[in-house]
Amino acid sequence: MALQREEVVRTALRLLNEVGIDGLTTRRLARELGVQSPALYWHFKNKRELLDLMAEAMLADALPPDRAPTPEDWPRWLAEDARAKRRALLAYRDGARVHAGTLPTADELPAVEAQLSALCQAGLRPRTALRLLLTIDRYVMGWVTEEQAWRQGAEERAQPAFPDEALSELPLLREAADTLRMTDHDADFEYGLSVLIEGFRGAIAAEEATGRGATGKGPTGKPDRLGWA
Q: Which CATH number, 3.20.20.70, 1.10.357.10, 3.90.25.10, 3.55.40.20, labels domain 64-154+178-205?
């Protein structure tokens, strides 16, 4: 029976949870599937392309490609997408490292176009809209990378990070000790996400107020200082 791409990707994801991204090699994957390594290259050209397919599969259930964002409530669905992506990546060992540096596959591009369409209907220019999506995506990637590394490190540490005695003469850090110790990843993630989205709200309002056009220049003809040109 011919090897199917979906079987290769699902096996790679299972192996990822067992050995991590550093232990995931095409040779080991081929052995797990009971084939020779060259058989895998019918489905992907190299490990980078395999990681792209794995990243797509990780998010397929959490972010279905046929979801339909609406212009009226773009802050809500952007936040929901970010939360769903974080959960999906945390479900896999080294999930953020797998996703980092990947490109959207051909199957994912229509979903990106739908998001851009909704944001442009809400008043954004295409480039501004895409930068908004990329900024939030990179926030999620960076957050999950740190969160997964922190959780792994916490398991390996002999004692909790930042014990009370280390903060005894540092009153400001002591007051914020729960945040310093990352005791509530969910709350801290939500805070950063809300700051990002509210920041874009303000920047978009400023863009509209100054009448920047498709060239990314204001009424004086000077380049857009926010870098949206």
A: 1.10.357.10
